[in-house]
Design a protein that fits this description.
With about 220 residues, the protein is mainly alpha-helical. It has a domain of about 130 residues: Leucine-rich Repeat Variant (Alpha Horseshoe). It has 9 helices and no strands. Helix 4 packs parallel to helix 6 and helix 7 packs parallel to helix 9. It starts with a helix and ends with a helix.
């Protein structure tokens, strides 16, 4: 009986070892793909194509002009600032002029005070309102004189927006003053800490010299 049991165990083990030997070894799982770093895509338009797109801002259809401005904005055209600045005051459609001002919001590299100041005198109320909002976002009080002139605007909405813009200038000036005061305070406290550290090190040196002399 024992021999039969031993024989069964031997045959079973042999079969398992044979199967392990015959089956191909499992391949390790593939390594994860390398992380793809963000790479800015290169330009897809040639110089000639860019010139044609820029020329489209003079198209007779306002939708074409606005689409051209959006495309130039999306591809970061280096000539975009002057182009949009010109569209603010020269595009014949007030809706396009308003949209261009809105497109430039938040992009201080594109927002130009000259074009926005000229837009304050636009015949369309919506353009004047958009210009006031953009100037308030910039917060440059150097244009306060032109904004103040709109306090005599025939449209109540424009007069209200002019007052709000002047208030935003004042708020930004207060914020800048508080930031400057906080920086000066931090610089002063840092100077005091450096002075205390230097005096503390000098006191340690004096103490060590005194101990050396006593010895």
């Amino acid at each position: 009986m024992r021999r039969a049991f031993a024989l069964i165990v031997l045959l079973t083990s042999g079969g398992f070892l044979a199967r392990e030997y015959m089956e191909p070894p499992q391949q390790p799982p593939p390594a994860p793909p390398p992380a793809i770093t963000h790479v800015e895509p290169g330009p897809i338009f040639s110089d000639m194509e860019l010139k044609r797109i820029r020329a489209s801002i003079k198209d007779g259809d306002p939708g074409v002009r606005w689409s051209a401005a959006q495309l130039l904005f999306s591809i970061h055209d280096p000539h975009l600032g002057p182009i949009l600045d010109k569209m603010i005051t020269e595009d014949p459609d007030p809706d396009v002029r308003m949209k261009v001002i809105g497109l430039m919001k938040g992009r201080e590299d594109l927002l130009r005070l000259g074009g926005l100041v000229r837009a304050l005198g636009d015949t369309d109320k919506g353009v004047r309102l958009q210009a006031l909002k953009a100037l308030g976002d910039i917060g440059d009080p150097s244009v306060a004189g032109w904004v103040t002139a709109l306090l005599k605007d025939p449209e109540p909405d424009v007069r209200i927006a002019a007052l709000q813009t002047l208030g935003r200038f004042q708020d930004k000036r207060k914020q800048e003053f508080r930031a400057l005061a906080e920086k000066l305070k931090q610089d002063y406290e840092a100077a005091l800490r450096r002075k205390a550290l230097r005096e503390g090190n000098a006191a340690i040196v004096d103490t060590n010299d005194a101990d050396f002399n006593v010895k």
